[in-house]
Amino acid sequence: MIDDVAIIIPAYSEGSVIRENLEGVCAAFKHVVCVNDGSPDNTREEAEKTRAVVINHTLNLGQGAAIQTGIEYALTLPVEYFCTFDADGQHSLEDVSAMLDTIKHERVDIVIGSRFKGRVENISPLKKRILKCAVWFSNATSGLKLTDAHNGLRVFNRHVAETIDLQETGYQHASEFTEKIAKNAYTYVEVPNTIVYTDYSRAKGQSMLNAVNIGIDTLIGKLVK
Amino acid sequence: MRIILQILLVVVILTGGVYFLFNNHTKAKAYKKILAIVAVILLILAALFPSTSDAIAHFLGIERGADLILYLAIFSILYLMLSQSLYKKRVAKREARLVRKLAILEEAVKRPEESQDRYKA
């Protein structure tokens, strides 16, 4: 069992799948932190049936806030690495192991998963196009050269965990993450990873129109700062 | 009829001014309070003596006093929208920090020994 990484899983209304997904992660990793982001369903109860540490937001704040809570808690654990992992089962544990090998051998601060370097299953052409636009937009605003802007699968070291301090509470945290990689000059590599869009994850995922919201909020955020 | 409307306007303006100065906004900055008092005086003058707003409008190169008041109202609404939105964002950030802190503390209370060991380490 791998014990030098904390797997951080933000969860909102994932009651029907969270137990199965957490059990899979707990079988491979010693430190699993699930942040229940004020779910109105039985996500908390289902998650607490597993070995994972379950942290509960009393209010729904958003994925960014849940990830930051998970990072802050995980910093108290005896681990060297941190991994953000989606709760809906679209990420694979093999990819996490490969990313851990990469961060250890390449000695970078952060390893980011890329759908477009790897394999994407069951993605609609529209979603693929919008994600490509998001990559272009994110690279233009952050100055980085990434192939996937909003991939939730990331492995990073303690230095990143201590300094990232995500302020965006919602989905915009993904843009903030890439911006802070540039701003804090973290060293990074992108590795291919496989994302499987199941009927469940497609139904749960954010609406494609939300990409417009994220883009506008990111721009306004830059102007208001 | 005109007198009634003028009285109504003065009452509404005074109520708004008093509400701003003495309710909820006691922590408002001094310059905002001074601006509010000036605005209340000017609005009452414009309500009671419409020709004064015409005179100020002409002085500023605007044709009618009513247009001047409309422009000022639009600027005020835009300013309020922006300041409210920034305020809402600040409150949301504080709320997020509070909820996150509470969540981590709850976990520490649930598993006191483990948490103490970890924090010591």
Uncertain runs of chain B are none
CATH class of chain A: Alpha Beta
Distance between the termini of chain A: 44 Å
Query: Would you give the CATH topology of chain A?
Result: Spore Coat Polysaccharide Biosynthesis Protein SpsA, Chain A
Tell me the strand order in the biggest sheet of chain A. 3-2-1-4-7-5-8
Largest sheet geometry of chain B: none
Radius of gyration of chain B from CA coordinates: 25 Å
Strand content of chain A: 15-25%
Level of helix content of chain A? 40-55%
Largest Cβ-defined interface: A-B, 20 and 16 residues
Order of helices and strands of chain A, N to C?
EHEHEHEHEEHEHHEEHH
The CATH superfamily label of chain A reads Spore Coat Polysaccharide Biosynthesis Protein SpsA, Chain A
- Structural class by SSE content of chain A: alpha/beta
Annotation field: number of helices of chain A: 9
Shape of chain A: globular
Description:
- The complex is a heterodimer of chains A (225) and B (121).
- With 225 residues, chain A is of the alpha/beta class.
- Chain A has one domain (2-224): Spore Coat Polysaccharide Biosynthesis Protein SpsA, Chain A.
- Chain A is 44% helix and 20% strand.
- Chain A contains nine helices and nine strands.
- Chain A has a seven-stranded mixed beta sheet, sandwiched between helices.
- In chain A, strand 1, helix 1 and strand 2 form a beta-alpha-beta unit.
- The longest helix of chain A is centred in the middle third of the chain and has 18 residues, at 125-142.
- The N and C termini of chain A lie far apart (44 Å).
- With 121 residues, chain B is an all-alpha fold.
- Chain B is 87% helix and 0% strand.
- The longest helix of chain B is centred in the C-terminal third of the chain and has 46 residues, at 65-110.
- Chain A binds chain B through residues 35, 38, 53, 55-59, 61, 65, 68-69, 72-73, 76-78, 167, 169, 224, and chain B through 86, 92-93, 95-96, 99-100, 102-104, 106-107, 115, 118-119, 121.
